[in-house]
Each structure stands twice: as C-alpha cells, then as structure tokens.
Amino acid sequence: MSLVIDSKQTDSQRMVFKLEGRLDTQTTPRLDAVMDPVLDAGVKTMIFDLAGLEYISSAGLRAVFRAKKALAPAGGTVLVVNLQRQVQKVFDIVKAMPAENVFQGWDELDEYLDRMQEKVLEEEEPS
Amino acid sequence: MKTLLTVPARIEEWSVVRLKLLGLLLDGGVPREVVDDMILVSEEVFVNAATHGGSGDDPRMEIHVEVENGLLTLRFEDEGRAFDPLSHPAPDLDPLDGERSIGGLGVYLVQQLTDRMTYERVRDRNQLTLERRFTQ
Which of A24, A55, A95 lies at the smallest CB-CB distance from B14? Predict the structure, then answer.
C-alpha cells in the first residue's frame, strides 16, 4: 500500500486527513477523490496530519494547493502537522505554506485551534 | 558505476521505475538523502515525459545513470515531442497568495535539487541531463 488515507470529520467545520506512505503522481488521484466532496461541502479548516507521509512530489503539492485555493474564498484554511524530513524539505523549497499554518505536533496545533475557537466565540458574543 | 535503464514512459509505470532507480542509486553508494532528492527529480522528469507524450503505442524512456567521484548524472532520453523544461516559466511562490499559479512546480523542484540541468534535442529525441554532486 503506497498511500493510506484516513479522514476524520471532527465537527461540521473541521476535517482531518491523516496520510501515510507516498503522495506522488500515482497515489494523489486517490486523495483528490476523497478530498473533493469535502471541499464542496464547505469545511472551514482542513488539517493534514503528515506524520506517516514519507514522500511528496509536485503532484501531491498540487492537491494541497487545490485545497487551499478551494477554502480561501470562504475564509477557510489548510493546516499541516508532523512534517517528515523529505516533505518538510519540499514544502520549504516551494514555500508551500505560510509558517503560521505549519505545526510541529498536535499539542501545538490543538492550542492554536483552541485559540481560534475562543476568538470565534468572542466575536459571536453580543456586547 | 554506469547503467542504462529502459522503461515504458507511462505514468502507471512510475512505481516500478522508482524501485529500479532506488536500487541502482543506493548500490552506487549515493547517500540516502541525495537518493531521495533524485527520486523526486526523476519522478518530475518522468511524469513530464509520460504526459507530453512519447511516440507510438509503446513510448519508452532511457535513463542513463552514472555515479563517479561524488557526481551523480542522470540523463533522460525519450522520443516524445520536443519539450525543454528550461523554457518553463518559474512558478509564483508567494505562500500567502491563494490564487498562485501551480504550473511549473515540478521543473522548479528539479532546478532547486540539482546542480546542473541541460536540455538538448538530438535526432528527434529529448535529452535532459541532470547533475548532482555529493560528499561520499
């Protein structure tokens, strides 16, 4: 198995894709296929957990960019966590993500998500 | 070390081509990190050739692999229509711009991960030569 995709919707606004293996020209179409309905459904935050992803090529990068592009108009974001050596290198070369959307681990990411949640609640609270 | 791999230039063959290259490069004493970079580079070149169409029902690609004194040279040859990756525009790399162009990414990665890249059209064949130095 060259790519394992484990997707989990944590709430109506948030989707987590856990990828294991290789995201290349042959495997990326499978990610596209599971990602498309999610993008159409209008999630706000898409998280890629890449702890088990050992390799990415431009084909895989395009999938990530496509997600970013699809979420952007509605103010949505793509976040990535647990980048391994090769993936980190490729992301760095093409400046794939702004630094504030890249997380070392789930502790850091959860903290960020909590802060975002508080911000949303504050904004919703009538003053 | 000097070897020639002749492979079908079709996308669905990439995983087989990759394993062959991986074995050759590791056996040739190329350090793991350089091997990983060059596998990525090879995928980008292979996919370009396979996508831009080889000739006939059974398009082929030749990959000449040479490892000598800390220099790895890969020469990719195919009979597809002329395609000079060096003539590709550089991609727009502003990470904050959601509308960025995503074309040319593969070629950009190849350029960044190799020390030298030359293209020639010789007798109706594309010849793309990539060099990467490494410390042994």
Answer: A24
Across the strands, what pairs with A9? Answer: A15
DSSP class of residue B95 equals T
Distance CA B136, CA B134 (A): 6
Amino acid (1-letter code) at residue B95: P
- Rounded Cα distance between B117 and B115, Å, is 7
Q: What is the DSSP string of A2-47?
A: -EEEEEEEEETTEEEEEEEEEESTTTHHHHHHHHHHHHHHT-SEEE
Distance from CA of A32 to the nearest CA of B (A): 16
For the sheet with B125-133, list strands across it.
B2-8, B60-68, B71-78, B125-133, B116-122
Sheet holding A14-23, edge to edge: A3-11, A14-23, A45-56, A77-81, A102-103
Instruction: Please identify every stretch of chain A with a pLDDT value under 50, giving residue numbers as ranges.
Output: none
From A116, A120, A110, A59, select the one nearest A81 (Cα to Cα). A110
Task: Report residue B103's pLDDT band, with 50, 70 and 90 as the boundaries.
Answer: low
Contact A59 B15 (CB under 8 A): no
